[in-house]
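Quick review question:
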């Protein structure tokens, strides 16, 4: 589970997705969203201090059904975390809405799609200077974005 899951929960169809970097970097998702096709981008990291998804959705937060029992938190299957099916349904619905809201925060601005298009990346590539210390990674994802628009 990660950014892709959140974008899909918000209603985006992911056509392609790629991360650029190692322990932290930039991700790009080529999506169809509300009738528009474009790219949404964000950054990721290796811990909750530098990754927004991990900070919002610690991997132990999602409710789960295990062996016919309902749990508030998938990481702890003990009596304290066990709940009724009704409680589970309320918790999972709230979790899924939070996930969709998180995805929409990348996809929208004021309720409208906020996607980048090919011209945006062509312009960024034209502004990129060879002596930028991080230009290799930035150049790589800009070129990927342009290539993905050409491919589809």
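Suggested answer, residue by residue:
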């Amino acid at each position: 589970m990660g950014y892709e899951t959140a974008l899909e929960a918000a209603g985006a169809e992911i056509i392609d997705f790629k991360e650029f970097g190692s322990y932290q970097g930039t991700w790009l998702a080529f999506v169809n969203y509300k009738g528009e096709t474009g790219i949404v981008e964000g950054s990721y990291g290796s811990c909750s201090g530098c990754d927004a998804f991990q900070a919002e959705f610690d991997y132990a937060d999602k409710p789960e059904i295990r062996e016919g029992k309902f749990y508030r938190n998938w990481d702890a299957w003990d009596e304290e975390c066990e709940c009724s099916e009704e409680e589970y349904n309320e918790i999972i619905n709230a979790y899924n809405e939070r996930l969709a809201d998180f995805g929409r925060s990348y996809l929208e601005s004021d309720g409208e799609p906020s996607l980048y298009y090919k011209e945006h990346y062509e312009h960024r590539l034209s502004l990129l200077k060879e002596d930028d210390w991080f230009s290799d990674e930035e150049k790589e994802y800009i070129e990927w974005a342009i290539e993905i628009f050409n491919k589809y």
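Why it works: The beta strands are 13-21, 25-33, 36-44, 64-66, 69-71, 82-83, 108-109, 112-113. The longest strand covers residues 13-21.
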